[in-house]
């Protein structure tokens, strides 16, 4: 499996496609390849994808669960910084789901100049109700007793690299880390001056809709989409709708992303043009297509594929 050495870890990274770099992070207990499986056929037509497994997950080796903060999003953001440096990515697009989305948000608060755009799916900076839901759903004894198929899937996903039965320790570590996570302040969130798309399912048990709206309102350059009749994994449960939303977002922010990449190469931070808001997908109308200015220009996404996917 392809790995890069970063922050004391052998980080598993799957690469595919061509175009501007897009780093994809997964949710707790999963893997990047699985969580983003429904979107990969579309995304790799427009981007060079870097699907990164978080520490303790799937193909990434190293680290431990001994300390209570081992899997906090601040630590995962540090891992991400070391990983993109090892990959030689000075600027890139970043998309994260759930735990990976929180890591992406923490990274953006500290290193906004490195990002061209940011996509956050199923993300809530507040520890509750996430902590309560995780304590119940991620109890390994409950999983083995009530959801043996999921237990077998977790073993197949994590056992080969983490070790037999280590998924049980992983689940406990995830639930243990949430209450102690550092919460980003309003001032820190205002530093995320990056074109951002916030996506939340209206039936997400981890992220109440009002929490998603509150996050959107605190990010200076954010767009918001609440996906109807949808749970936590919006890009898996509603793949076609999510693909349409993402396609519009990347297309309408292409000029800004190109500007930010050029500014980073010149050693300055792109100032942007101020907040851009779109509360629902219908308001995210296609904008003018930006003319290419360099070989590293942003690629425009093509017409969305009609594809379906299932829960991971």
Provide the fold topology.
Elements: E1 3-6, E2 9-17, E3 21-25, H1 32-35, H2 40-43, E4 48-52, H3 73-87, E5 92-97, H4 99-110, E6 115-121, H5 130-137, H6 140-146, H7 148-162, H8 166-177, H9 186-190, E7 196-201, H10 209-218, E8 222-227, H11 234-237, H12 239-252, H13 254-265
Parallel strand pairs: 3-4, 3-5, 5-6, 6-7, 7-8
Antiparallel strand pairs: 1-2, 2-4
Helix pairs in contact: 3-4, 5-8, 6-7
CATH topology, which one?
Rossmann fold
> What is the average of the pLDDT values?
86
Q: Name the overall outline.
A: globular
Radius of gyration: 18 Å
The largest sheet, given as strand count, sense and whether it forms a barrel, is: 8 strands, mixed
CATH architecture: 3-Layer(aba) Sandwich
Give the gist of this structure.
Helices cover 39% and strands 15% of the residues. The protein has 312 residues and is of the alpha/beta class.
What does this structure look like?
With 312 residues, this protein is α/β, with parallel strands linked by helices. The chain has a single domain, classed as Rossmann fold. 39% of the residues lie in helices and 15% in strands. Helix 6 packs across helix 7 (148-162).
């Amino acid at each position: 499996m392809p790995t890069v050495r970063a922050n004391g870890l052998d980080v598993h990274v799957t690469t595919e496609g061509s175009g501007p770099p897009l780093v994809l992070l997964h949710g707790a207990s999963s893997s990047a390849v699985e969580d983003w499986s429904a979107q990969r056929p579309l995304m790799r037509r427009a981007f060079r994808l870097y699907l990164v497994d978080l520490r303790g997950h799937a193909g990434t080796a190293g680290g431990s669960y001994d300390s209570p903060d081992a899997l906090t999003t601040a630590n995962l953001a540090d891992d991400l910084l070391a990983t993109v440096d090892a990959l030689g990515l000075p600027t890139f697009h970043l998309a994260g789901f759930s735990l990976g989305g929180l890591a992406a948000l923490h990274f953006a608060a500290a290193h906004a100049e490195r990002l061209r755009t940011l996509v956050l799916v199923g993300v809530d900076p507040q520890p509750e109700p996430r902590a309560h839901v995780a304590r119940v759903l991620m109890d390994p004894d409950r999983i083995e007793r009530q959801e043996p198929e999921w237990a077998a899937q977790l073993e197949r996903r994590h056992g080969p690299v983490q070790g037999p039965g280590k998924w049980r320790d992983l689940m406990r570590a995830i639930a243990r880390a949430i209450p102690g996570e550092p919460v980003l302040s309003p001032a820190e969130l205002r530093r995320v001056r990056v074109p951002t798309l916030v996506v939340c399912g209206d039936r997400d048990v981890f992220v109440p809709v009002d929490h998603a709206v509150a996050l959107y309102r605190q990010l200076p350059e954010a767009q918001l989409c609440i996906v109807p009749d949808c749970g936590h994994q919006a890009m898996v449960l509603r793949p076609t709708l999510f693909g349409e939303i993402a396609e519009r977002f990347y297309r309408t922010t292409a000029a800004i992303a190109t500007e930010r990449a050029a500014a980073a190469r010149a050693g300055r931070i792109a100032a942007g043009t101020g907040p851009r808001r779109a509360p629902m997908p219908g308001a995210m109308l296609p904008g003018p297509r930006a003319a290419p200015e360099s070989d590293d220009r942003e690629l425009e996404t093509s017409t969305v594929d009609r594809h379906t996917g299932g829960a991971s």
